[in-house]
Design brief:
The protein has 291 residues and is an alpha/beta fold. The chain has 10 helices and 13 strands.
Length: 291
């Protein structure tokens, strides 16, 4: 049974967030107008040893780390969702303190980690989930997966496997299917290392075209299939669902309820692939007005 994590007013509407990731927005007006971001894609580390060739953040083993005591964080509203990423977030020595500090402020923290780091830091992740300091766990998978990885994925309730359209092998998606694992498909970003990778892997765009035709299989064999806005566009997802489902499920254009903050470089933007500006205010509402 789903549990309500919190409810709050944002601008002219109310938001209710549940522990299974469900979010409900409602008002009696014709439009929802947010005063501050409901969720923030927050980069806290540019340090990672995986050297993924399509990494749009261009993370490196000796990459820089964010100031997790930045005053901007003090302006976040209760029940704001932040998706911590990088880079490998577990490279940050202040992560533990940060997660418990955010939990005391009723900030909902989620993370995205590479499958390799998910296994490496599994005990830590399980500890944070059990203590309510981590909620959603995104696990990036873009290569063949073993039975061991699948068994680990099934041990934590709010795990969502992240795959990149055009990069993930179809065989990997088939192996992940029928395991009661949630799936998030990300659009292919021609940004950072993704530019060079796409130039040397022309098959990406053919793979995306093939994936379009296979969406019905994914809808049938995964309990939840979700998409970022870029994937919605690249895969023409709207053509595969009825109008009512789309209206109920589409969470809005980038920047309407969400934003991106690179706390490593102290920059912000509409999304991770949008033009970035220097953080010029320690009030998140000031920055949100510009995205």
């Amino acid at each position: 049974m789903r549990k309500v994590l919190g409810s709050y007013r944002n601008g002219n509407y109310m938001v209710t967030i549940c522990d299974d990731g469900t979010k409900i927005r409602h008002n009696n007006e014709d439009e929802l107008i947010a005063a501050f971001p409901e969720s923030i894609d927050l980069k806290i580390s540019n340090r990672c040893n995986m050297r993924c060739p399509q990494c749009h953040e261009q993370s490196v083993p000796d990459g820089a780390l964010a100031n997790l005591h930045h005053p901007l964080l003090d302006s976040l509203h209760s029940y704001c969702e932040i998706a911590l990423g990088g880079g490998n977030v577990f490279e940050h020595p202040d992560l533990d303190d940060f997660l418990f500090r955010m939990a005391r402020k009723h900030i909902i923290c989620n993370i995205t980690v590479h499958a390799h780091h998910f296994i490496q830091h599994f005990n830590e992740i399980q500890y944070y989930v059990e203590h309510g300091t981590l909620h959603g766990i995104g696990v990036s998978v873009n290569e063949p997966v073993s039975d061991d990885i699948i068994s680990y994925l099934k041990l934590i309730p709010n795990v969502v496997v992240h795959v990149i359209a055009g990069v993930v092998p179809w065989e990997t998606l088939v192996k992940l299917s029928n395991n009661n694992i949630k799936l998030l498909i990300l659009g292919y970003k021609t940004f950072g290392r993704g530019v060079q990778y796409a130039e040397s892997h022309k098959e990406i765009w053919n793979n995306i075209e093939q994936l379009k035709t296979r969406l019905p299989y994914l809808f049938k064999h995964f309990p939840v299939v979700s998409f970022d806005n870029l994937a919605l566009e690249q895969l023409n997802v709207k053509d595969f669902v009825d109008e009512k489902t789309w209206e109920q499920s589409y969470m809005g254009d980038d920047g309407k309820y969400t934003m991106y903050v690179d706390l490593v470089k102290e920059e912000f933007a509409t999304s991770s692939i949008s033009p970035r500006k220097p953080i010029h205010s320690n009030n998140i509402e000031d920055l949100f007005k510009e995205v």
